[in-house]
Amino acid sequence: MHFGQTPEEIEASRRGLLVALFASAGSLILVVFGILSLLEARNGLAAILLLNAVLCLSLLLYNRLTQAHAREVSYFFAGQAFVLALYLTLSGGVEGSGVFFAFPVVMIMVMAGFSTVRGAFALCTLLMGVMALGLYGPFPAVYEYDPVQKPRILVGLAALCLMAILAEWMRVRSYRAITDTHDQLSVDARHDPLTGLLNRRGLEEATRTMEDEAFPAAVALLDLDHFKQINDACGHDAGDVVIRSVADHLQRHCKGRDLLCRWGGEEFLILLTSTSGSSARALLDDIREGFARTPIVLAGETRSLSFSAGVAELPRRGQFDAAVQQADRALYRAKQAGRNRVLAAGVEGRNEA
């Protein structure tokens, strides 16, 4: 059975599976005991059991036809189990044996209806309250258990409710922990640990899900100027400070829907959505000039740094690789022309040094 990919889909599939299993097994058991009750001329008990069998089959059919309502179906099933557990206990079933069958029904009630500990506890408290009122109240239709058995029935059902709630709570908590860990690992796999920007894998996934309205777009590749000299003179820790500073500067000056990626080493890639090549180059020039005017303290010394960039147009999603290659060639020309400048693919840029 395919459980889906999102937590919501998995939970809906789990509830649907619970209803399918419990309703299938429950209807079969109820039909068997219903027929036996008919043969013993216990018509009232037989009618209740067979009616519940029909309800189980109806829920099973509805669950298969409407997968989107798995939560509502499971709640209804829990309500049915609630009423059936009360009936089996208070009516006594066959000479007081109904309470034994009420125990698994109560567990089904908790498993099918569990959403939160508070909700499950409220449902079980209501069940125990009605059960105690029926057992100790002046109701002639209630089966007369031995006085010693009544508190034992209530304590046993209460213990079962508590264990079922704890088991479901542990299941939910462990599932949530696994989901959170999976989500964090997924985030880590798509992001650069130093800057928090997308890495290449994350960028590739993000571009596949971009909407058509994001195009035409532009791709910019930028590279820090003289970065090796910074590492050699100040150490790799200073180099990390510079890389984080560039990432922060880019995040402050790009739109929320633009994609920022640490392409590798001191190289960054920016995918500017709904932007022409000329507009992208102008924006990168502004970002470059702002970065050059922002001093950075490295090893106790204030430095002004710069980067070079190449920009290429990205008319359609399928041309991403070609646009990156064009931007890379423009970046190479910017480096050869003296650095600290932005060049567009196929266009000679003015000297910004």
Radius of gyration: 34 Å
Number of strands: 7
H/E element string? HHHHHHHEHHEEHEEEHE
The helix content, as a percent range, equals 55-70%
Overall form: elongated
- Adjacency order of strands in the biggest sheet: 2-3-1-6-7
Strand content: 5-15%
Q: Indicate the low-confidence ranges by residue numbers.
A: 348-353
Mean pLDDT, nearest integer?
88
Main β-sheet: number of strands, strand sense, barrel status? Answer: 5 strands, mixed
Helix/strand-derived category reads: alpha+beta
N→C terminal distance:
63 Å
Q: Supply the number of structural domains.
A: 2
Helical run tally = 11
In short:
This protein is of the alpha+beta class and 353 residues long. 63% of the residues lie in helices and 10% in strands.
Which terms summarize this structure?
11 helices; 5-stranded mixed sheet; 7 strands; 353 residues; Alpha-Beta Plaits; disordered C terminus; alpha+beta
How would you describe the overall organization of this protein?
This protein has 353 residues and is an alpha+beta fold. The protein has 2 domains: 7-188, no CATH class; 200-344, Alpha-Beta Plaits, CATH 3.30.70. It is 63% helix and 10% strand. The chain is elongated and about 100 Å long.
Topology diagram in text:
Layout: H1 7-39, H2 43-65, H3 70-91, H4 98-113, H5 117-136, H6 149-190, H7 200-208, E1 217-224, H8 227-234, H9 236-253, E2 259-264, E3 267-272, H10 277-292, E4 296-298, E5 301-303, E6 307-314, H11 320-336, E7 342-344
Parallel strand pairs: 6-7
Antiparallel strand pairs: 1-3, 1-6, 2-3, 4-5
Helix pairs in contact: 1-2, 1-3, 2-3, 3-4, 3-5, 4-6, 5-6, 8-9
